[in-house]
Design brief:
Elements lengths: L4 E5 L2 E6 L1 H6 L4 H6 L6 E10 L2 E6 L2 E4 L2 H5 L11 E6 L4 E3 L11 E11 L4 E7 L7 H10 L15 E7 L10 E6 L5 E4 L9
Length: about 200
């Protein structure tokens, strides 16, 4: 199989691809959540169109999606006004003070609940006012991969979601702060809420 990796779920093959392809274009929620550490952040979002742009509404906040993401996913047309699961990898989240090139319409605000300084980076756990994605895929991932034990796992009825970002070492955020987080929306992932399949062509 060379440099290709197979991802299995309950004895069924989910995807066979090189690691970079699994990372960049996971076929479904299970593969997306299985690859990467810390794991991909998964949150419910509603797709909306406004002023020629596509936005993902997360709770009361909106993120403008990068044009390249929209162009690469023609199926998104069918999701206008519908809920999806949005996946954001930790490395696509940065302290906004360290990412001046990312415009304000691609920022989210949250409350920092845990700061893990690792020298070369800071792992920042922050809470946003939006329900977590609690599909069967997500529940299974939580059981299989396991929570890292630093933040409580989401449950039914939660109105907040904890996201994890990889911030630069110069970030000065502190626990309890309301922080502004820049999102690289050219690298977000979108999944069908019912099937868990990636939304692509």
């Amino acid at each position: 199989m060379g440099d290709r990796v197979a991802v299995m779920r309950k004895g069924e093959l989910q995807q066979v691809a090189p690691p970079q392809e699994l990372y960049e274009r996971p076929v479904n929620l299970f593969v997306a959540g299985f690859i990467g550490s810390p794991a991909m952040n998964l949150v419910e979002a509603t797709i909306e169109r406004a002023n020629g742009k596509v936005k993902a509404k997360i709770g009361s906040q909106e993120l403008t999606l990068d044009d390249a993401v929209v162009t690469a996913r023609p199926k998104l047309e069918d999701y206008s006004g519908r809920q999806v699961v949005m996946g954001i990898r930790p490395e696509s989240l940065e302290d906004a003070t360290l990412a001046p090139d990312i415009p304000a319409d691609r920022h989210v605000k949250g409350v920092l609940v845990l700061r893990e300084p690792l020298g070369s980076e800071i792992i920042a756990h922050f809470e946003v006012d939006a329900p977590p994605a609690l599909t069967e895929d997500v529940r299974e991932l939580a059981r299989d991969v396991g929570s890292e034990g630093t933040v409580q796992a989401p449950s039914e009825g939660d109105t907040k979601t904890t996201l994890v970002g990889r911030f630069g070492p110069r970030s000065r955020v502190k626990s309890g702060d309301t922080i502004d987080v820049a999102v690289d929306t050219s690298a977000v992932h979108l999944f069908d809420l019912e099937s868990g399949s990636g939304i692509y062509d």
